[in-house]
Design brief:
There is one protein chain. This protein is α/β, with parallel strands linked by helices. It folds into three domains: 92 residues, no CATH class; 51 residues, no CATH class; 190 residues, P-loop containing nucleotide triphosphate hydrolases (Rossmann fold). 47% of the residues lie in helices and 18% in strands. The protein contains 13 helices and eleven strands. The strands form two sheets. The chain has an eight-stranded mixed sheet, sandwiched between helices. A three-stranded antiparallel sheet has the order 1-3-2. The protein starts with a strand and ends with a helix. About 7% of the residues have low confidence.
């Protein structure tokens, strides 16, 4: 007898593997749910493991052509026919068992989809209400459950403290713009989709490093698609005393970078590009290559839906962004998008903005504070 284990995303998936490998005569011995994959115990996926067996003799029976009428194979007393009848009966029983097993698995799946027991269900609902994705929510609550069971913790306040700490760790420690005294300057580019507030954000950064950090700052903008964008940035530049360079092509950008070699910090503002427009993304990439920045910050709005964040992140990976900035925290009561992006990208969150005022309404991200906002 041959016995093998198969792992699939569903019982149907496992059964297809068994049928292809062992044939229709296979017998199901055992089924169970398992969790595989993941990183450091997180983000594991649920799978179905099925143990199946087949008799060597049954597996060796060739699926030959049916016997012709009038041959000796038709005789009811032939031992071959007797064995065939028995085999057909076993196959029928096997199919019946498989049907019952599938029904039981569906019942188990339904039971496991029900809400978590309290207080875990409360935290689960809070994260979903904060727009944290279902998968990340499930993984975070599973982590909480594992910790609470291991430490024998039943107090809800202790659980909430741990939950906030775990979410803060997933967001990771912030990394703001660091000016290296051993280098002549730092070049920072901001990229992102339209409408997330890149121009206002870059003006806030320029104002803070000029007025508070007393650094020599230059602003370069390649956002010549929006009529008001250049004038808006020039107005900010005049107020804070920062020179603004406007470029239309990658060669012009190279020249502007060379012109501002004496500055401590050069901030590059780019046009908002649609992640669904390949031509626009290719153009953006050519500007980034021309600037050769030390860091590329992907600017996202906390009001962006999960599906759109996934698409934006996937598209902007080609640009090579290194850190995250989230805007418009004041415009939404749901901040789960920050956790979603942090987990999906593995990148550090640097700044968040909470309004339109320049140079105010921008701060270095505080993971602990954000975690408490998400948990509620």
């Amino acid at each position: 007898m041959r016995i093998k284990k198969y792992v699939g995303t569903s019982i149907q998936d496992a059964m297809v593997q068994i049928k292809n490998d062992l044939g229709r005569d296979a017998v199901i011995l055992h089924t169970r749910k398992i969790r595989v994959g993941g990183i450091f115990g997180l983000f594991k996926r649920e799978k179905i493991e099925v143990t199946a067996a087949v008799d060597d003799a049954a597996a060796a029976v060739p699926a030959g052509p049916a016997p012709q009428s009038g041959t000796a194979a038709e005789g009811p007393d032939r031992p071959e026919n007797s064995g065939l009848v028995q085999l057909q009966g076993e196959i029928a029983q096997l199919r019946e068992m498989m049907g019952e097993m599938a029904a039981r698995l569906n019942e188990v799946k339904l039971a496991t989809s029900l809400p978590y027991p309290k207080p875990y269900s409360d935290f689960y609902e809070r994260l979903l209400a904060a727009d944290v994705s279902e998968q990340i929510t499930a993984d975070v609550i599973q982590n909480l459950y594992t910790w609470a069971q291991a430490e024998n913790i039943t107090d809800k306040n202790e659980m909430q403290t741990y939950l906030c700490r775990h979410i803060a760790e997933l967001i990771s420690a912030p990394k703001s713009i660091q000016l290296d005294n051993t280098k002549t300057q730092a070049v920072i580019a901001l990229v992102g989709p339209t409408g997330v507030g890149k121009t206002t954000t870059i003006a806030k950064l320029a104002a803070n490093y000029t007025l508070l950090a007393k650094q020599k700052v230059a602003l370069v903008t390649a956002d010549t698609y929006r009529i008001a964008a250049v004038e808006q940035l020039k107005t900010y530049g005049e107020i804070i005393g920062v020179q603004v360079e406007v470029v239309f092509t990658p060669p012009e950008l190279k020249a502007a970078m060379e012109k501002n070699r004496n500055k401590d910090l050069v901030l590059l503002d780019t046009a908002g590009r649609s992640h669904r427009n390949n031509m626009q993304m290719s153009e953006l990439k050519s500007f980034i290559n021309a600037a050769a920045p030390d860091e590329v910050y992907l600017v996202l709005s906390v009001t962006t839906k999960m599906k759109d964040i996934q698409d934006i992140i996937k598209t902007y990976e080609d640009v090579g962004f290194t850190k995250l900035i989230f805007t418009k925290l004041d415009e939404s009561a749901c901040h789960g998008a920050i956790l979603n992006a942090a987990v999906l990208t593995g990148k550090s969150l640097s700044y968040v903005t909470v309004g339109q005022n320049v140079p105010d309404d921008i701060e270095v991200a505080n993971p602990e504070k954000i975690a408490k906002m998400i948990v509620g």
